[in-house]
Amino acid sequence: MRLGPALFVAARNLLGRKAAGEGPGARHRLTGAIMGVALSIVPLTVVLFVADGMIEGITSRYLETSTYHLQASPFYSLSGGELEAAGAKLAALPGVTGVFPELQGPGVMLAAAAQEGEVQPQPTAATLRAIEPALLEDPGFRSYIELKDGELAFKKGNDVLLGSALAARLHAGVGDLVSVITVREGDGASFTPRLSTLRIRGILSTGYQELDALWAMVPLSAGEKMLEPGTRRVFIGIKTGDAFKDLTARKEGISSLLGGDGTADLPWTVRDWREIEGNLWRSFSTTKALLVLIMALAVAVAAVNVGASLIMLALERKKDIAILKSTGTKDEQVSAIFVASGAFVGVTGSLLGLAIGSLISVFINQLIAALEWILNLFADLSAWIRGSPVAGPVRVLDPSFYLESIPVRISLPELALIALGGILLCILASLYPARRASRLPPMEIFRKS
């Protein structure tokens, strides 16, 4: 039997009229199998696309606002002027779109004392980032920064830009003064504290609280005074056309340029973002792989259900099979009918599941917001009935650990891979029912019926 007639018979098995003596649910058996495949693919699609979007969203925020695509670090501490001179050489390289000298070091911040009755601020650890104003104008930086209040600029030497979560912990706002304690090198191995006073010029957010809870950005000149050479990390952040491409050749070119003047043997270390944020990247990738594996098991279970449905269909349609075989239909042709039925279920269920999953993924933020609204409504009603105070708002995804808004990245190759996997699993699940149906003895079936 050719593929066309086989598919026709398979469609008849699914959509044909109710046979004499057939149970009320028999003709809907494969329809249920299609829905099972579709429902198993929906969470796989949502998890894959949302995980990809969150990983890319968090990673891009690190790359564009803090880690950069590459970092060139000297083996010894340099002044801001020396960093700028090295940066000018790097900026001339082809493919380099941005060069940003930076000093980083730890500090403890404390806002001004609160008035009586107000929450008293507590000392808070922070990462001081001494940067050039050019970083604040970088398109990549600005695309992931939201200015909550004030200005995204340095107007005076003692200006500071705070992350929104850090500002909240300090109970400080734009225009307030904050004290910063850093370490000053003393005689020998001793260290003494250095106290500096800064004025908050702006409050910004990356949408990722882990970053917003640490950052305090100051001008490069101020950072040189606040951070002693032995207590700061010195590097040049470098951006390229595409951070997600192979940066090996770019890294080697930068190393050759910075160490090629013969003054020292490789005085700079050049690393790409995969080396700098390797632990974070591996953690994200492992979590994604585990989630996808769990969701893929649900698809495998749905495929097993397809096989069970085809077995039941073969038993219920055994008289039809006997008639086909008695009229000259070969065993291979009977098998093809059931394999085609499995493929039909796989194609239909996979396409339906992908469509629903993609739609949910696109509107995932709106759906989460609606779910949070419903949960908070029930929580408020419950508190009102009990006469107890309303607890804090219910959050499905705590922004302390996740992005405030989930970016969704839908990949057509991944869609095709999910569909292909679902179809292949359904075809594999149909092989045993097809083999069993092809071996049904027609004479014995006629005799018993």
Question: Would you spell out the secondary-structure blueprint of this structure?
Answer:
Blueprint: H1 3-15, H2 29-67, E1 70-74, H3 80-91, E2 96-111, E3 124-131, H4 133-136, H5 139-143, E4 146-150, E5 159-163, H6 164-170, E6 177-185, E7 191-205, H7 209-212, E8 215-219, H8 220-226, E9 233-240, H9 248-259, E10 268-272, H10 273-276, H11 278-316, H12 318-326, H13 331-362, H14 364-386, H15 412-438, H16 442-448
Parallel strand pairs: 3-8, 5-7
Antiparallel strand pairs: 1-9, 1-10, 2-3, 2-6, 2-9, 4-7, 5-8, 6-7
Helix pairs in contact: 1-13, 2-11, 2-13, 11-13, 11-15, 12-16, 13-15
Task: Report on the architecture of this protein.
The protein has 449 residues and is of the alpha+beta class. It contains 16 helices and ten strands. The chain has helices spanning 3-15, 29-67, 80-91, 133-136, 139-143, 164-170, 209-212, 220-226, 248-259, 273-276, 278-316, 318-326, 331-362, 364-386, 412-438, 442-448; strands spanning 70-74, 96-111, 124-131, 146-150, 159-163, 177-185, 191-205, 215-219, 233-240, 268-272. The protein has a six-stranded mixed barrel with strand order 2-3-8-5-7-6. Helix 2 packs antiparallel against helix 11, helix 2 (29-67) crosses helix 13 and helix 13 (331-362) packs antiparallel against helix 15. The radius of gyration is 32 Å and the shape is elongated. The model has no long low-confidence stretch (mean pLDDT 81).
